[in-house]
User: Fold this.
Amino acid sequence: MPPAGPDFAERPPWTRPGFIAAAVLVAVIVVAGVLIAVLAPRGDDPDAGGGTPPPTPPPIVTSTPDQVLPTAVPTVAPDDVRWELVGPFAVPVSASAGPKQVTDTTASGFAHTPEGALVAAAQIMTRAGHALGRDRWEPTIQRQFVPSADRDQLLATLTAADSGPADPGSLSRITGYTYQSYTPDTAVIGLVLRAPSAGTPRYHVLSLTLLWRDGDWRMQAPPGGSWLSVNRATDTLAGVVEWGPQ
Assistant:
């Protein structure tokens, strides 16, 4: 008769095979339950917003494309311009091109567009003129011209020649323009003015350079601080877009 096998009845219960298998099964169930509790959505949690799922996060944007600025120069005069008087001069004002801020002495806040540069050229050039008096040309040149030795010379020249506002009958007026070149950083505009004369019309073209600086168009002073250095006389408007107060 073979020797008797182990007497499981006499062994402690936790050493019996059935007990061990049951314990392992319970452990597996407990671990699975813990994982489910950790990984499951918490929509039923009263602290999670009453069952409302969390909002989907916005997509991550890795780069922002640069703003595309207009560079095509207009072939016709801007159609939303009205002309307002500054002293005896008429200057353009546009809802789309600017200026956005106008004071008794200066105008600023021009659109970063070819039309904005055009209106800025007319406004700043007019306000910087000797004929309006020092209370207008001085703050305009100081605040709306790009700092340079030429700007300082222009201020010195006007200060030395200051004799008060000029006779309105002796003043030229804006009558047209040409774009000589344009980029979003630099605009060169030929501002055409009609000279006051009773005979054959005479015009002079001022080649005005504007630079985009500190969020606005600012004028570059003429070489040597003399407007004569950027002036050209003509007796024709060929190639000019006619533009001015009616």
Q: What stands out?
A: The first helix runs from residue 17 to 39. The CA atoms of residues 18 and 24 lie 10 Å apart. The beta strands are 81-86, 89-94, 101-102, 107-108, 173-182, 186-194, 203-213, 216-219, 231-234, 241-242.
